[in-house]
Design brief:
There is one protein chain. By secondary structure, the protein is α+β, with helices and mostly antiparallel strands. It has a single domain, classed as Heat Shock Protein 90. It has 5 helices and 7 strands, in the order ααβαββαββαββ. The strands form 2 sheets. A 5-stranded mixed β-sheet has the order 2-4-5-7-6. It has a two-stranded antiparallel sheet with strand order 1-3. α1 runs antiparallel to α2. It is globular and about 50 Å long.
């Protein structure tokens, strides 16, 4: 049974890597940009495995996932939310989602500006979980910056990762900057070691 489970998980991971590789190389993108995006996404997968291996009972704190993805911008982000231990199956989708948001912010959003700020917050109750990513800076982008078909990163944060968590995402550009939210059942996020759930 253990051997079959290991084989099953390995095949799943290879399928994810194959999809990431294929999508990273699609569209009007230079080979160098595609390579950087692909390697960044692989590093996120690897880091999420490290978090899982280091965690007690295979559980990872949501705060640790957020800090892992935003560690390079320590003075430009704030986090707020209750302590939540993330179930194994949700660690990678959340890490990849946050990685894409954290990768885009220095290129197009708040983290490209010295006065930019990102607030990541989450809340939960017995039924639902909500994650918010709100960017602000002095000279905000008030309209969606690109009307081309969405790239893989956009597809990942708006559809693929939310569907992995049985949830839905919204994204828009308010006067203050990018606002993104994910809503899904708390059971898709929180592991059994969370006494409040």
């Amino acid at each position: 049974m253990l051997s079959k489970e290991v084989a099953h998980r390995a095949k799943n991971q290879l399928a994810v890597i194959q999809s990431i590789a294929s999508r990273s190389l699609q569209g009007d993108v230079s080979l160098d940009d595609a390579r950087k995006a692909f390697v960044g996404r692989l590093h996120t997968m690897s880091n999420s495995f490290d978090l899982l291996n280091a965690a007690t009972m295979g559980q990872v704190s949501l705060k640790d996932i957020v800090q892992m993805e935003l560690s390079a911008f320590v003075d430009q982000y704030t986090i707020e939310g209750p302590e939540i231990l993330v179930r194994n199956a949700a660690v990678q989708p959340l890490a990849l989602l946050l990685h894409e948001l954290a990768t885009n912010a220095p290129k197009y959003g708040a983290l490209a500006h010295a006065d930019g700020d990102v607030k990541i917050s989450w809340s939960s109750d017995w039924d639902d979980f909500k994650l918010s990513w709100i960017e602000t800076w002095d000279m905000p982008q008030t309209a969606q910056p690109d009307t081309k078909p969405p790239g893989f990163g956009t597809l990942l944060v708006q559809r693929l990762m939310p569907s992995q968590l049985s949830g839905q995402a919204t994204q828009h550009y308010a006067d203050a900057g990018l606002q993104y939210s994910l809503t899904c059942p708390i059971a898709a996020i929180a592991g059994p070691e969370n006494p409040q759930f």
